[in-house]
Design a protein that fits this description.
The structure is a homotetramer.
Chain A (H helix, E strand, L loop, with lengths): L1 H11 L13 E6 L4 E5 L12 H11 L7 E6 L5 H9 L4 E5 L5 E4 L1 H4 L9
Parallel strand pairs in A: 3-4
Antiparallel strand pairs in A: 1-2, 1-3, 4-5
Amino acid sequence: MSKELYDRAVAISQRAYAPYSNYLVGAVVQTTDGKLFEGVNVENAAYPLGVCAEKSALVKAVSEGYKPGDIAAIGITASPCGGCRQWLYEFQIGEITFLSSSGELVTHSAADLLPHTWDLPS
Amino acid sequence: MSKELYDRAVAISQRAYAPYSNYLVGAVVQTTDGKLFEGVNVENAAYPLGVCAEKSALVKAVSEGYKPGDIAAIGITASPCGGCRQWLYEFQIGEITFLSSSGELVTHSAADLLPHTWDLPS
Amino acid sequence: MSKELYDRAVAISQRAYAPYSNYLVGAVVQTTDGKLFEGVNVENAAYPLGVCAEKSALVKAVSEGYKPGDIAAIGITASPCGGCRQWLYEFQIGEITFLSSSGELVTHSAADLLPHTWDLPS
Amino acid sequence: MSKELYDRAVAISQRAYAPYSNYLVGAVVQTTDGKLFEGVNVENAAYPLGVCAEKSALVKAVSEGYKPGDIAAIGITASPCGGCRQWLYEFQIGEITFLSSSGELVTHSAADLLPHTWDLPS
């Protein structure tokens, strides 16, 4: 399954709006009840205001009624940045699949990608 | 039409993930070819990593193939923050409708909301 | 005075860390008791995580004990982005001086740059 | 030394501008040539526009001429969020000291806190 999510992330990445970096990223989340939501990075002329592909996919799921705890997996075209790791952790995602910098498809949990973090308020 | 977008924004706002502020925001964009995309704010335990409702609605449109220039209007439950105004400007949105702080439904262009700004690279 | 703040902003801008955009920005704030704090933009390989020059100058002032209400003026090398305008508004800055896109030195208040905004909680 | 940086971070945290979360954070960076720069979190009514303490300390160092590679260590009052970890990684900080969620003072490298990340452009 994680290979399928990754492949869809690669396909969707062509829709990214990234005129400043020309770096196209795609992400696809799968909910625990089997729905898929796709996201791409959307840049802004004021760079710090941009939104990453992982967040785009997750806000889409939230806008259709999903919450942290409802997302089972995500496929991303590349390793997530630290900001997105914090989101993957907030959403408690168990399977995060992306192409590693050595060119290999790998799967990690959100906790693996954000070691020694603080506990979220519950 | 702007009243309809605003009403949908109010309805969708209930889906916001805002456990830290308890401030629920909704936004609905309409493309020039008549499609609607809904967004809500999604907060994060690390506050600066959150995403506003306006951006949520816009990234959804982008993930389905729309770009700056393809968005005609947006309805928002409240006046957009400065960061979102920069997005509304990047997307060149002509009609932005929201409830003003005096409780009145108003419509402005992106340029009106970001006066004296710099020109985007073209 | 605003010309002096602007000139210092131009001078300090050379210290920006902007390897991704090569766009160097400087900002200098003046407190109501006459102190100056300088800031530059600091980019990150993950673009949305960058920090603008205006925020850099303001966090510096805050780290030395200043708060919203204590900042009288700011000089910036260019027109502030929407995200920074929200900060200038939070800090209630009366005189914001920058080079306009038509190449002229202009001064505006934070309220002028963020019209039709919502009231901050007090 | 890391204990000293942490202690200064705790002391400076009282200067944070955090009226929305009431969560005060402090951070102190030490340059390779022995200078110290202090930062605090600065929140904004629009939550996503806030700036964390770690970034505040680092932009201060940059505004005085330091760059990635010039920062040896940082002490933080709490475990850094993912967004800040990406900054610590960009600045290649070898010693990051903070109070763990179990109440113990720990020191890690930026690479330890952001495993399986992508290589920065060089």
